[in-house]
Amino acid sequence: MPSFIPIDSDSDFSIHNIPFGVFSQQGGEKRCATRIGDTVVDLRQLARKGAFDGVEGFSASWFEQTTLNDFASQPLSTRRAVRLHIQDLFTPDTNVSLEGKKDLLNTALFDANTVDLHLPVRVGDYTDFCASEYHTTNAGRLMKVPGPPLPPAWNYLPIGYHGRASSVVVSGTPITRPRGMRPPAPSSNSGPSFGPTASLDMEYEMAAIVGGKGNALGETLGTGDVMENIFGLAIMNDWSAREIQGFEMTPLGPFNGKNFGTTVSPWIVTLDALLPFKTGLPPREGIPEMAKYLQEDDDQPTFDIDLDMSITASGEEKPTHVMRSNLKHLAYSFGQMLAHHTVSGCPMQAGDMLGSGTISGPEPNSLACLLEITERGSKPFKTSGGQERVWLQDGDRVDMTAVAKRTVDGENANVGFGNCSGVIKPAKA
Length: 429
Fold this sequence. Notes:
Blueprint: E1 21-24, E2 31-36, E3 39-42, H1 43-48, H2 69-72, H3 76-89, H4 102-108, E4 109-111, E5 116-118, E6 126-129, H5 133-142, E7 160-162, E8 168-170, E9 175-176, E10 179-182, E11 193-196, E12 200-201, E13 204-210, H6 226-229, E14 230-238, E15 240-241, H7 242-248, E16 262-264, H8 271-274, E17 278-279, E18 302-303, E19 306-312, E20 320-326, H9 334-342, E21 353-355, H10 370-373, E22 381-382, E23 388-389, E24 397-404, E25 407-408, E26 411-412, E27 415-425
Parallel strand pairs: 6-21, 8-16, 9-27
Antiparallel strand pairs: 1-2, 1-5, 2-3, 3-4, 6-7, 10-11, 12-15, 13-14, 13-21, 14-16, 17-18, 19-20, 19-24, 22-23, 24-27, 25-26
């Protein structure tokens, strides 16, 4: 399925991807889009010019919006038909190919390096899970959570907490160092102090964006509803202020240590695009059988996606690679998270966001936050420019990428997510 749009051999955005996002140009209106190679495609313009005529159930009004919520709320069959139609539009020799239609292409195609990208959906609610056994065990030990490092409930259900949707921002948005209540030093007789966090951290997660009609209050969704009710995935950075988090989190969980910023990548990759990369969950030896509502009929309910993270220290140009992990290390699937979230009758709606939790793996280089990498600040590491780090400093930049790689008939068929980045700004005076 070659495209007539040029695509680099290592691009995240092959014609097999077709993610969805929102862009603007030179401060203009926000418009719904997709991306092919280094080209951003204006879906609003295509819809206005009739490029989607013939797609059953299509409404041009979906792409007249400044977010993707209306489109994401459509049934899977409709979303799938639109995505496949976009592939046909930009593939030669199809009945609807736009190849050679220069007047339309000149008004609908933009260089990805010349546009601004925005939060792709209006996030109504945001819930963060903790689905990696490796991270949950490590964090429980390092944060000195009362009881065993792996909470007793963890083996039976995907544990989670409600996050703050108002501070979800798109990649590239600066993150201001938060202030809060910090615990007293272990040897001190004084009480807690107020001030900027000294232990600012990042967490590599994946966000699932809810789609479809969701469920009404009192109704539930099952693990088998994941394709219909998850619009797609995006990279997510769950910024964390560790000493603020540690002081406040017992017994109700994180609050100000987490609510100051959550960054997501601008392109939502559909589950359809990820189907060639399906794989199974890690084996659960010696663990009791899941409750019926959490059982998967699909023996490959997750995806083989490579995840990378780097830090560019303030004053340096070369990034320091700090992590290589994979989504398949998570012990719970997004279908199980969706089922657990709604089993109580909690309603979900298009645009809601489910965070996976930190995606740490079993190897030292697969630890997905500084809490684990530095053993809670006790083991510094050197940056590419020779600086020492245990936590993020002002001016540091964090970059996260994700890609599932394959070739089809010798052609690039990668499905990637682009970049999720953020720079730390000093705390407010």
